[in-house]
From TrEMBL:
InterPro entries: Aminotransferase_I/II_large, DapC_beta/gammaproteobac, LL-DAP_aminotransferase, PyrdxlP-dep_Trfase, PyrdxlP-dep_Trfase_major, PyrdxlP-dep_Trfase_small
Record-linked NCBIfam families: DapC_gpp
Ribosomal protein among keywords: no
Designated name of the protein: Succinyldiaminopimelate transaminase
Keywords: Aminotransferase, Transferase
This protein's record includes keyword Lipid metabolism: no
Cofactors named for this entry: pyridoxal 5'-phosphate
GO terms for MF: succinyldiaminopimelate transaminase activity
EC number: 2.6.1.17
Residue ranges of coiled coil: none
Record domain Aminotransferase class I/classII large: where: 32-389
Enzyme class: transferase
Length: 401
């Protein structure tokens, strides 16, 4: 067996199940889960129609590089969304959801023969980053989020010696779990570090289309273009239809950026057997070419967050994020696990303790004392959950006196 498998940590949801397996929730309340970030809004009819209408495409093997029409649809969306014009043949590649691609990129770019090969991650973080690094034979280093700066990752925590060993950096904007969006100045800092030390930047942008400010979130590709980096050197952006179009079961997204990296990534994927299903390609073309369903989806989230956030903010330290579909709330007393366990027991609401989404780094676990609330269900269910959480929090505060 691959000994590197023993380095993997249990997934946050596995740890949560272990922490709650002996809890019997109050039967007076029906179960509501805000724990998993799985979109619950209906999938667009145009995507379903495209899937059904492409059944006869199953008789042929798909190309790993995807159909030209799909790549053209992707570059068309990038131009409309960010004002960019990429080459469909060399700078974009369809992938089976951002998750598998985020993992696979590390296997492509990491050279484990180099002493101390390192992957830098934000903290808290999407656990795929860590698993990808460890199974590629690298070690991890973490930049903690800073609540005083809207939970931006504090990249200055990474010292010069660590940067010199870094081969890959994962960043996530809008962030999971904080919803923070990276500004242009932060991108400029990361690009300068990449130029100095030669590492690749993997920009996870799967929440880019769910936002609450007037200005849409900045893409890493867009930031590079604004800074004159039109070759996107050492930059790969990851985007998914899962959240944008409510089709997580379809497993469809793309990577885009540095043509030299895309070429090597395509080579890896050819051997990895990761060509996209032809039906999924047809449905993806329909999704990328339509923006009306995305606008409607975003408005549903905006209306939901506008009603739910004040209910929770009356009792918890929580505020509307820049983007994404999570609320990142501080809990009274600072024990996020005890809060989540007692909330489940008394009110049958599941939330994810923030400490399970982070690692201890620089002397602290930056997720400790917070909970992640995924507002993915319909508005009425999210509001009911918020009212229960607020009621529970009032009593929880009393128990701490």
């Amino acid at each position: 067996m691959n000994p590197l498998l023993d380095k993997l940590h249990p997934y946050p949801f596995e740890r949560l199940r272990a922490l709650t397996q002996d809890i019997k929730p109050n039967p007076a309340y029906r179960a509501i889960s805000l724990g998993i970030g799985e979109p619950k809004h209906p999938a667009p009819q145009l995507v379903e129609d495209a899937l059904v209408g492409s059944l006869k495409t199953l008789a042929a093997y798909p190309a790993t590089a995807g159909e030209p029409k799909l790549r053209e649809a992707i570059v068309g969306w990038l131009e409309r969304r960010y004002g960019l014009r990429l080459d469909a043949a060399s700078q974009v590649l369809p992938v089976n959801g951002s998750r598998e691609a985020l993992f696979a990129l590390a296997q492509t770019v990491i050279d484990p023969s180099q002493p101390g090969a390192t992957v830098v991650c934000p903290n808290p973080f999407y656990q795929i980053y860590e698993g990808a690094a460890l199974l590629a034979g690298a070690q991890t280093a973490f930049a903690n989020s800073d609540p005083a700066r809207n939970f931006a990752a504090d990249w200055s925590q990474i010292d010069e010696a660590t940067w010199s060993r870094t081969q890959l950096l994962y960043c996530c904007s809008p962030g999971n779990p904080t919803g923070a969006v990276m500004p242009l100045g932060e991108w400029e800092t990361l690009f300068a570090l990449s130029d100095q030390h030669g590492f690749v930047i993997a920009s996870d942008e799967c929440y880019s289309e769910i936002y609450f400010r007037e200005e849409p979130p900045l893409s890493g590709l867009e930031a590079a273009a604004k800074l004159g980096r039109h070759d996107f050197r050492n930059l790969i952006a990851f985007t998914s239809l899962s959240k944008r179009s409510n089709v997580p079961g379809m497993r469809s997204g793309f990577v885009a950026g540095d043509a030299a990296l895309i070429k090597k990534f395509l080579l890896y994927r050819t051997y990895h057997g990761s060509a996209m299903n032809p039906m999924v390609q047809a449905a993806s073309i329909a999704a990328w070419n339509d923006e009306a369903h995305v606008i409607a989806n975003r408005e549903q989230y905006r209306a939901k967050f506008a009603q739910v956030t004040p209910v929770l903010a009356a009792e918890l330290d929580v505020a509307l994020p820049d983007a994404s579909f999570y609320l990142w709330a501080a809990v009274p007393g600072g024990d996020d696990i005890a809060f989540a366990q007692q909330l489940l027991a008394q009110y049958n609401v599941t939330v994810l303790p923030g400490s399970l989404l982070a690692r201890e780094a620089h002397g602290v676990n930056p997720g400790a004392g917070r909970i992640r609330l995924a507002l993915v269900a319909e508005k009425a269910e999210c509001l009911e959950a918020a009212r229960r959480i607020a009621e529970f929090t009032r009593s929880f505060k009393q128990s701490l006196l």
